[in-house]
Amino acid sequence: MAYQAPGYVLRLGPADQVDADRFRALAAGARSADPATRAALLAEALELWRGPAYADFADEEFVRAAVHRLAEQRLAVVEEQAELRLAAGDHLLLAGELADLVARHPLRERLRAVQLRALYLAGRQGEALASYEELRHRLADEFGADPGPELAELHQAILRQDAPDRPRANLPAQLTTLIGRRHALEEIDRLLAGARLVTLIGPGGVGKTRVAVEAAARAGGSRFPDGVWLVEFAGQRGGVADLAQAVAATLGVSGDVPAGPGTPADRLAAAPARAPDPARTRQLRAGRRAGRRARGPAAARRARGARPGHQPGAARPGGRDAVSGRAAAA
Protein backbone atom coordinates (compact mmCIF):
# COMPACT_ATOMS: atom_id res chain seq x y z
CA MET A 1 0.00 0.00 0.00
CA ALA A 2 1.45 3.36 -1.01
CA TYR A 3 0.24 6.95 -1.09
CA GLN A 4 -0.19 8.42 -4.53
CA ALA A 5 -2.20 11.57 -5.16
CA PRO A 6 -5.12 11.83 -4.95
CA GLY A 7 -5.21 8.78 -2.60
CA TYR A 8 -3.69 5.38 -1.89
CA VAL A 9 -2.71 2.64 -4.36
CA LEU A 10 -2.28 -1.07 -3.76
CA ARG A 11 0.71 -2.41 -5.70
CA LEU A 12 0.54 -6.14 -6.43
CA GLY A 13 3.42 -8.27 -7.65
CA PRO A 14 3.26 -11.35 -9.90
CA ALA A 15 3.12 -13.68 -6.89
CA ASP A 16 0.12 -11.95 -5.29
CA GLN A 17 -3.17 -13.85 -5.45
CA VAL A 18 -6.18 -11.96 -6.77
CA ASP A 19 -9.42 -13.90 -7.17
CA ALA A 20 -10.23 -12.34 -10.56
CA ASP A 21 -6.81 -13.30 -11.94
CA ARG A 22 -7.03 -16.82 -10.50
CA PHE A 23 -10.51 -17.20 -11.98
CA ARG A 24 -9.33 -16.26 -15.47
CA ALA A 25 -6.26 -18.52 -15.17
CA LEU A 26 -8.32 -21.52 -14.10
CA ALA A 27 -10.88 -20.97 -16.84
CA ALA A 28 -8.15 -20.65 -19.47
CA GLY A 29 -6.39 -23.77 -18.23
CA ALA A 30 -9.62 -25.76 -18.33
CA ARG A 31 -10.10 -25.22 -22.05
CA SER A 32 -6.96 -27.18 -22.93
CA ALA A 33 -7.42 -29.96 -20.33
CA ASP A 34 -8.98 -33.41 -20.55
CA PRO A 35 -12.67 -33.63 -19.55
CA ALA A 36 -12.09 -34.77 -15.96
CA THR A 37 -9.46 -32.10 -15.26
CA ARG A 38 -11.54 -29.53 -17.09
CA ALA A 39 -14.53 -30.18 -14.83
CA ALA A 40 -12.38 -29.83 -11.73
CA LEU A 41 -10.78 -26.57 -12.93
CA LEU A 42 -14.12 -24.99 -13.86
CA ALA A 43 -15.60 -25.97 -10.50
CA GLU A 44 -12.60 -24.49 -8.69
CA ALA A 45 -12.92 -21.28 -10.71
CA LEU A 46 -16.59 -20.85 -9.86
CA GLU A 47 -15.95 -21.57 -6.17
CA LEU A 48 -13.90 -18.37 -6.02
CA TRP A 49 -17.10 -16.37 -6.39
CA ARG A 50 -18.84 -15.37 -3.17
CA GLY A 51 -21.39 -13.02 -4.69
CA PRO A 52 -21.48 -10.28 -7.34
CA ALA A 53 -18.21 -8.55 -8.15
CA TYR A 54 -17.66 -5.26 -6.31
CA ALA A 55 -21.01 -5.75 -4.57
CA ASP A 56 -20.43 -2.84 -2.16
CA PHE A 57 -19.66 -0.44 -5.02
CA ALA A 58 -22.00 -1.72 -7.72
CA ASP A 59 -23.53 1.73 -8.27
CA GLU A 60 -20.19 3.51 -8.61
CA GLU A 61 -19.17 4.60 -12.07
CA PHE A 62 -15.54 3.58 -11.68
CA VAL A 63 -16.39 -0.16 -11.27
CA ARG A 64 -19.24 -0.58 -13.75
CA ALA A 65 -17.08 -1.72 -16.64
CA ALA A 66 -15.17 -4.19 -14.45
CA VAL A 67 -18.40 -5.52 -12.92
CA HIS A 68 -19.90 -6.13 -16.36
CA ARG A 69 -16.73 -7.80 -17.64
CA LEU A 70 -16.38 -10.12 -14.65
CA ALA A 71 -20.07 -11.02 -14.64
CA GLU A 72 -19.86 -11.90 -18.34
CA GLN A 73 -16.79 -14.08 -17.76
CA ARG A 74 -18.46 -15.85 -14.87
CA LEU A 75 -21.59 -16.58 -16.89
CA ALA A 76 -19.51 -17.90 -19.79
CA VAL A 77 -17.80 -20.36 -17.43
CA VAL A 78 -21.17 -21.40 -15.99
CA GLU A 79 -22.36 -22.15 -19.54
CA GLU A 80 -19.17 -24.06 -20.28
CA GLN A 81 -19.55 -26.11 -17.12
CA ALA A 82 -23.20 -26.83 -17.96
CA GLU A 83 -22.20 -28.11 -21.40
CA LEU A 84 -19.58 -30.34 -19.78
CA ARG A 85 -22.09 -31.74 -17.31
CA LEU A 86 -24.53 -32.35 -20.14
CA ALA A 87 -21.91 -34.29 -22.07
CA ALA A 88 -21.27 -36.36 -18.94
CA GLY A 89 -24.95 -37.34 -18.75
CA ASP A 90 -25.97 -35.09 -15.86
CA HIS A 91 -29.07 -33.86 -17.70
CA LEU A 92 -31.63 -34.79 -15.03
CA LEU A 93 -30.23 -32.44 -12.39
CA LEU A 94 -29.12 -29.87 -14.93
CA ALA A 95 -32.60 -29.48 -16.39
CA GLY A 96 -33.89 -28.25 -13.04
CA GLU A 97 -30.88 -26.17 -12.07
CA LEU A 98 -30.88 -24.12 -15.28
CA ALA A 99 -34.46 -22.85 -14.93
CA ASP A 100 -33.56 -20.03 -12.54
CA LEU A 101 -30.44 -19.07 -14.46
CA VAL A 102 -32.34 -18.87 -17.75
CA ALA A 103 -35.02 -16.75 -16.07
CA ARG A 104 -32.34 -14.27 -14.96
CA HIS A 105 -30.61 -14.26 -18.35
CA PRO A 106 -33.42 -15.02 -20.82
CA LEU A 107 -31.66 -13.75 -23.95
CA ARG A 108 -28.47 -15.83 -23.73
CA GLU A 109 -28.87 -18.34 -26.53
CA ARG A 110 -25.95 -20.56 -25.51
CA LEU A 111 -27.48 -20.99 -22.07
CA ARG A 112 -30.90 -21.57 -23.58
CA ALA A 113 -29.48 -24.25 -25.90
CA VAL A 114 -28.02 -26.16 -22.95
CA GLN A 115 -31.37 -25.96 -21.19
CA LEU A 116 -33.27 -27.22 -24.26
CA ARG A 117 -30.94 -30.18 -24.66
CA ALA A 118 -31.05 -31.01 -20.94
CA LEU A 119 -34.86 -30.92 -20.90
CA TYR A 120 -35.07 -33.06 -24.03
CA LEU A 121 -32.61 -35.62 -22.70
CA ALA A 122 -34.56 -35.75 -19.43
CA GLY A 123 -37.69 -36.72 -21.37
CA ARG A 124 -39.29 -33.27 -20.98
CA GLN A 125 -39.70 -32.45 -24.66
CA GLY A 126 -42.78 -30.29 -24.12
CA GLU A 127 -40.95 -28.04 -21.67
CA ALA A 128 -38.00 -27.77 -24.05
CA LEU A 129 -40.30 -26.61 -26.84
CA ALA A 130 -42.08 -24.18 -24.50
CA SER A 131 -38.74 -22.66 -23.48
CA TYR A 132 -37.82 -22.10 -27.12
CA GLU A 133 -41.19 -20.47 -27.84
CA GLU A 134 -40.75 -18.16 -24.84
CA LEU A 135 -37.41 -16.98 -26.21
CA ARG A 136 -38.77 -16.63 -29.75
CA HIS A 137 -41.66 -14.44 -28.60
CA ARG A 138 -39.40 -12.33 -26.39
CA LEU A 139 -36.95 -11.67 -29.23
CA ALA A 140 -39.76 -10.85 -31.65
CA ASP A 141 -41.53 -8.49 -29.24
CA GLU A 142 -38.45 -6.66 -27.96
CA PHE A 143 -36.12 -6.66 -30.98
CA GLY A 144 -38.08 -7.88 -33.99
CA ALA A 145 -35.57 -10.73 -34.33
CA ASP A 146 -35.58 -14.53 -34.35
CA PRO A 147 -33.38 -17.01 -32.48
CA GLY A 148 -30.04 -17.73 -34.10
CA PRO A 149 -29.63 -20.53 -36.65
CA GLU A 150 -27.99 -22.97 -34.24
CA LEU A 151 -30.82 -22.68 -31.72
CA ALA A 152 -33.43 -22.85 -34.48
CA GLU A 153 -31.80 -26.02 -35.81
CA LEU A 154 -31.84 -27.55 -32.34
CA HIS A 155 -35.53 -26.68 -32.04
CA GLN A 156 -36.28 -28.46 -35.30
CA ALA A 157 -34.26 -31.49 -34.19
CA ILE A 158 -36.29 -31.69 -30.97
CA LEU A 159 -39.52 -31.53 -32.99
CA ARG A 160 -38.25 -34.45 -35.10
CA GLN A 161 -37.00 -36.22 -31.95
CA ASP A 162 -33.66 -36.16 -33.69
CA ALA A 163 -31.68 -34.01 -31.29
CA PRO A 164 -27.99 -34.80 -30.66
CA ASP A 165 -27.42 -38.34 -29.42
CA ARG A 166 -28.24 -38.99 -25.84
CA PRO A 167 -25.28 -39.90 -23.66
CA ARG A 168 -24.74 -43.58 -22.95
CA ALA A 169 -24.41 -42.93 -19.25
CA ASN A 170 -25.85 -40.74 -16.54
CA LEU A 171 -23.07 -41.24 -14.00
CA PRO A 172 -22.26 -38.07 -12.04
CA ALA A 173 -19.04 -36.34 -13.06
CA GLN A 174 -16.30 -36.85 -10.47
CA LEU A 175 -14.25 -33.77 -9.64
CA THR A 176 -11.43 -35.66 -7.91
CA THR A 177 -9.39 -38.79 -8.61
CA LEU A 178 -10.17 -41.93 -6.64
CA ILE A 179 -7.05 -43.21 -4.90
CA GLY A 180 -6.31 -46.22 -2.74
CA ARG A 181 -9.04 -48.45 -4.23
CA ARG A 182 -7.20 -50.15 -7.08
CA HIS A 183 -7.58 -53.68 -5.72
CA ALA A 184 -11.30 -53.18 -5.01
CA LEU A 185 -11.88 -51.87 -8.54
CA GLU A 186 -10.03 -54.83 -10.05
CA GLU A 187 -12.11 -57.25 -7.98
CA ILE A 188 -15.35 -55.58 -9.03
CA ASP A 189 -14.32 -55.71 -12.68
CA ARG A 190 -13.54 -59.43 -12.36
CA LEU A 191 -16.90 -60.13 -10.71
CA LEU A 192 -18.83 -58.13 -13.32
CA ALA A 193 -17.43 -60.41 -16.01
CA GLY A 194 -19.44 -63.34 -14.73
CA ALA A 195 -22.08 -62.20 -12.24
CA ARG A 196 -25.42 -60.58 -12.98
CA LEU A 197 -25.34 -58.68 -9.69
CA VAL A 198 -22.38 -57.38 -7.70
CA THR A 199 -23.04 -55.86 -4.28
CA LEU A 200 -20.61 -53.61 -2.44
CA ILE A 201 -21.03 -53.83 1.32
CA GLY A 202 -19.48 -51.95 4.20
CA PRO A 203 -20.25 -49.43 6.97
CA GLY A 204 -22.00 -46.22 6.05
CA GLY A 205 -19.65 -43.49 4.87
CA VAL A 206 -16.73 -45.67 3.78
CA GLY A 207 -17.17 -44.75 0.11
CA LYS A 208 -19.22 -47.58 -1.43
CA THR A 209 -21.07 -45.26 -3.79
CA ARG A 210 -17.88 -43.53 -4.93
CA VAL A 211 -16.23 -46.88 -5.69
CA ALA A 212 -19.34 -48.16 -7.48
CA VAL A 213 -19.53 -45.06 -9.68
CA GLU A 214 -15.85 -45.37 -10.54
CA ALA A 215 -16.20 -49.08 -11.35
CA ALA A 216 -19.25 -48.38 -13.52
CA ALA A 217 -17.46 -45.60 -15.40
CA ARG A 218 -14.46 -47.82 -16.11
CA ALA A 219 -16.62 -50.70 -17.32
CA GLY A 220 -18.92 -48.59 -19.46
CA GLY A 221 -16.94 -48.41 -22.67
CA SER A 222 -15.78 -51.99 -23.10
CA ARG A 223 -17.90 -54.30 -20.95
CA PHE A 224 -21.21 -52.47 -21.46
CA PRO A 225 -21.08 -50.77 -24.87
CA ASP A 226 -24.77 -49.85 -24.68
CA GLY A 227 -24.30 -47.70 -21.61
CA VAL A 228 -24.12 -47.62 -17.83
CA TRP A 229 -26.97 -46.02 -15.90
CA LEU A 230 -27.35 -44.87 -12.32
CA VAL A 231 -30.80 -45.69 -10.89
CA GLU A 232 -31.50 -44.05 -7.54
CA PHE A 233 -33.53 -46.35 -5.27
CA ALA A 234 -32.88 -44.33 -2.12
CA GLY A 235 -36.25 -43.23 -0.77
CA GLN A 236 -38.19 -45.60 -3.02
CA ARG A 237 -41.24 -47.26 -1.50
CA GLY A 238 -43.26 -50.18 -2.78
CA GLY A 239 -42.40 -53.42 -4.50
CA VAL A 240 -40.54 -54.64 -7.55
CA ALA A 241 -43.02 -52.90 -9.85
CA ASP A 242 -42.03 -49.54 -8.37
CA LEU A 243 -38.36 -50.30 -8.97
CA ALA A 244 -39.14 -51.27 -12.57
CA GLN A 245 -40.84 -47.89 -12.98
CA ALA A 246 -37.74 -46.14 -11.59
CA VAL A 247 -35.57 -47.99 -14.09
CA ALA A 248 -37.94 -47.02 -16.92
CA ALA A 249 -37.77 -43.36 -15.94
CA THR A 250 -33.96 -43.39 -15.83
CA LEU A 251 -33.71 -45.08 -19.21
CA GLY A 252 -36.01 -42.48 -20.75
CA VAL A 253 -38.97 -44.78 -21.47
CA SER A 254 -41.92 -42.40 -21.47
CA GLY A 255 -45.23 -43.31 -19.93
CA ASP A 256 -46.02 -45.94 -17.38
CA VAL A 257 -44.75 -49.48 -17.61
CA PRO A 258 -47.71 -51.24 -19.25
CA ALA A 259 -49.99 -53.48 -17.20
CA GLY A 260 -50.44 -57.09 -18.16
CA PRO A 261 -49.20 -60.59 -17.48
CA GLY A 262 -45.64 -61.41 -16.55
CA THR A 263 -43.22 -59.90 -14.10
CA PRO A 264 -42.65 -56.13 -13.86
CA ALA A 265 -39.30 -56.63 -15.58
CA ASP A 266 -41.06 -58.43 -18.48
CA ARG A 267 -43.46 -55.52 -18.86
CA LEU A 268 -40.58 -53.04 -18.70
CA ALA A 269 -38.88 -54.84 -21.60
CA ALA A 270 -42.15 -54.61 -23.55
CA ALA A 271 -42.53 -50.86 -22.99
CA PRO A 272 -43.84 -49.08 -26.13
CA ALA A 273 -41.36 -47.38 -28.43
CA ARG A 274 -42.85 -43.95 -27.87
CA ALA A 275 -40.00 -42.85 -25.65
CA PRO A 276 -37.99 -39.68 -26.35
CA ASP A 277 -35.24 -42.03 -27.45
CA PRO A 278 -36.78 -45.06 -29.22
CA ALA A 279 -33.31 -46.56 -29.69
CA ARG A 280 -33.02 -46.95 -25.93
CA THR A 281 -36.34 -48.81 -25.82
CA ARG A 282 -35.08 -51.13 -28.55
CA GLN A 283 -32.04 -51.83 -26.41
CA LEU A 284 -34.35 -52.97 -23.60
CA ARG A 285 -36.34 -55.23 -25.89
CA ALA A 286 -33.28 -56.83 -27.45
CA GLY A 287 -31.62 -57.41 -24.08
CA ARG A 288 -28.51 -55.59 -25.16
CA ARG A 289 -25.62 -55.22 -22.77
CA ALA A 290 -26.34 -52.15 -20.73
CA GLY A 291 -25.10 -51.99 -17.17
CA ARG A 292 -27.29 -50.68 -14.39
CA ARG A 293 -26.14 -49.44 -11.04
CA ALA A 294 -28.77 -49.31 -8.31
CA ARG A 295 -28.22 -47.28 -5.18
CA GLY A 296 -29.96 -47.27 -1.83
CA PRO A 297 -31.42 -49.54 0.85
CA ALA A 298 -34.33 -50.45 -1.43
CA ALA A 299 -31.87 -52.06 -3.79
CA ALA A 300 -30.37 -54.09 -0.94
CA ARG A 301 -33.76 -55.29 0.25
CA ARG A 302 -35.01 -56.32 -3.18
CA ALA A 303 -31.88 -57.69 -4.84
CA ARG A 304 -33.25 -61.20 -4.51
CA GLY A 305 -36.14 -60.22 -6.76
CA ALA A 306 -33.84 -59.66 -9.75
CA ARG A 307 -34.55 -61.88 -12.70
CA PRO A 308 -32.20 -64.81 -13.21
CA GLY A 309 -30.49 -65.30 -16.51
CA HIS A 310 -29.83 -61.63 -17.24
CA GLN A 311 -26.70 -60.53 -18.99
CA PRO A 312 -23.91 -59.64 -16.55
CA GLY A 313 -24.26 -57.44 -14.53
CA ALA A 314 -25.35 -54.65 -12.28
CA ALA A 315 -23.26 -53.16 -9.48
CA ARG A 316 -24.78 -51.54 -6.45
CA PRO A 317 -23.70 -50.37 -3.03
CA GLY A 318 -25.63 -52.03 -0.24
CA GLY A 319 -27.49 -50.34 2.56
CA ARG A 320 -26.05 -49.19 5.87
CA ASP A 321 -27.07 -52.47 7.49
CA ALA A 322 -24.44 -54.31 5.47
CA VAL A 323 -21.34 -53.95 7.59
CA SER A 324 -18.75 -56.47 6.47
CA GLY A 325 -16.85 -57.53 3.38
CA ARG A 326 -15.97 -55.60 0.29
CA ALA A 327 -17.60 -57.13 -2.80
CA ALA A 328 -19.89 -60.08 -3.29
CA ALA A 329 -21.27 -61.72 -6.40
CA ALA A 330 -24.81 -63.00 -6.67
Describe the 3D structure.
By secondary structure, the chain is mainly alpha-helical. Helices cover about 50% and strands about 10% of the residues. It contains 13 helices and 7 strands. The strands form 3 sheets. It has a 3-stranded mixed sheet with strand order 6-3-7, with helices on one face. A two-stranded antiparallel ribbon has the order 1-2. A hairpin with a 2-residue loop joins strand 1 (about 1-5) and strand 2 (about 5-10). Helix 1 (about 20-30) runs antiparallel to helix 2, helix 3 (about 60-85) runs parallel beside helix 5 and helix 5 runs antiparallel to helix 6 (about 125-145). The longest helix has 27 residues, at about 60-85. It is flat. It starts with a strand and ends with a strand. The relative contact order is 0.10.
Keywords:
330 residues; mainly alpha; 3-stranded mixed sheet; two-stranded antiparallel sheet; 13 helices; flat
Q: Uncertain runs with pLDDT below 50, 5 residues or more?
A: 272-290, 297-313, 319-330
Determine the number of helices (DSSP H or I, runs of at least 4 residues). 13
Order of helices and strands: EEHHHHHHHHEHEHHHEHEE
Structural class: mainly alpha
